[in-house]
Each structure stands twice: as C-alpha cells, then as structure tokens.
Write a structure and sequence with these properties.
Blueprint lengths: L2 E4 L6 E2 L1 H14 L7 H7 L4 H11 L8 H15 L5 E2 L3 H10 L3 E9 H12 L6 E5 L10 H10 L6 E5 L2 H9 L3 E5 L6 H6 L4 E3 L11
Parallel strand pairs: 1-4, 1-6, 4-5, 6-7, 7-8
Antiparallel strand pairs: 2-3
Helix pairs in contact: 1-4, 3-4
Length: 216
C-alpha cells in the first residue's frame, strides 16, 4: 500500500455529540422534539442536508416542508459548535504518526461541509498534517461516489488498488469498493459489523493499531 484515505466522522474523530447538539438545536427552533444520540449515529454520514432530511422524517415531517429552514439553522449552529466535545478516538494519533514514519500518503475524505472539515482537521491534527483534506463541496459528487477518492489517488500518482480506504459506515464501504481500493471498516465509529460486512468491507478492525499490519 502507498496511501490511505480516511473518513472523518466516526473514523478519525468522535464527533457525534457536536452533530447531536447542532441537530437538536435546529429542530428546537421549529418546535420539533430532540433526537437521541444513538439515533444520530444512523442519521449522519451522507452530508449535512441529508442529515437534516432524515432528522425531519424522524420527527414526522415526511413532506420536508421545513427542510430549508432547519438546514439553514443547522449550518448556523454547526459553524459555532462544530468542535463541541470532539476528540480523536483512542489510538488514532499513534496510528497516524506510525503511518507518517512509514512514509505513507494520508488523506481525509468527508461528507461534512468542506470548510468545517478543514477547520476540524486543522484544530485537532494541525495544518498540513494530511497530504490532502476534502469535505463536501457544491458541484462535487459526495460519497458514495468514488470520484473524490479516485481524484486523491490520481493526485498522488498512485493506482487506486494501492490505496486503503478506511471508514465506519456503509457509505464509506461503497465509496472504497467503487474506487477499486482495499476497504477497511472500523468498529469504534457510528455503525456495526453487520452493516460493514453487507457493504463489502475487505477487512474489519476493532482498534486503530490493527491497521498497522497493512503498512508496517
């Protein structure tokens, strides 16, 4: 392997409390009841607007009549609260340092809005720590489209089969498989083994240090 592409939420960073906080604050603005943290683990993962669609359907707004208003509020709250109780998962910092020492290329590919993705990565890992950081941008297909992952491999001058794709959801597994990458599902994030297996994970790991064997 010559490079590894990481998902962000639920893979590198535990961000579910920030998502829950901003989501429930946005819902409250328009009279909706809050949603549990456990439920947010399954609502998140496919971009902010899809998150809000799922939130509203969860709260009975099947016609999504309040979508634009709640989405705007969610983004407003997320701009100020995107760091709320966010932290790297145990073992992630050690893993990343080992990969750097081994000369691996490293990237982040997220469905979180691009500006927030960059801000979060720079806060917790430092500017320039990763070789490439990409979040969701207008006009660019979000995951599970393989376009983002393939563009990163191309930027590195690396064949996709020589890249590892690491994530915690069905969306991540579909992204990696569609890009022709070796896809590793992680169990410390938002979803479970069954979902990862059913969506084509080539391997599943329980702790970050288990990833060492693919490189070292």
């Amino acid at each position: 392997m010559r490079g590894v592409i990481f998902d962000l939420d639920g893979t590198l960073l535990d961000t579910i409390k920030s998502i829950e906080l901003c989501g429930n604050k946005a819902l409250k603005e328009y009279g909706y009841e809050p949603i549990s943290r456990e439920k947010y683990c399954y609502l998140a993962g496919d971009g902010a607007k899809e998150l809000v669609r799922r939130m509203l359907r969860e709260r009975g707004d099947e016609d999504l009549k309040d979508l634009d208003k709640v989405y705007e509020k969610y983004l407003e709250f997320f701009q100020t609260d995107c760091f709320y109780e966010v932290a790297p998962y145990e073992g992630i910092l050690e893993l990343l340092e080992k990969l750097k020492e081994a000369g691996m290329k490293m990237a982040v590919l997220s469905n979180k809005p691009h500006k927030r993705t960059v801000e979060v990565i720079e806060k917790f890992f430092g500017k320039g720590y990763f070789d490439w950081v990409q979040g969701q941008k207008d006009g660019v297909p979000k995951k599970p489209s393989p376009e983002g992952a393939l563009a990163i491999a191309q930027r590195w001058g690396t064949d996709s089969k020589d890249c590892l794709y690491v994530g915690d959801t069905d969306t991540d597994m579909k992204t990696g498989k569609s890009a022709g990458m070796y896809t590793v599902g992680v169990l410390w994030g938002f979803r479970n083994r069954k979902e990862l297996e059913e969506n084509g994970a080539d391997a599943i790991i329980e702790k970050p240090k288990e990833l060492y064997s693919y490189f070292l």
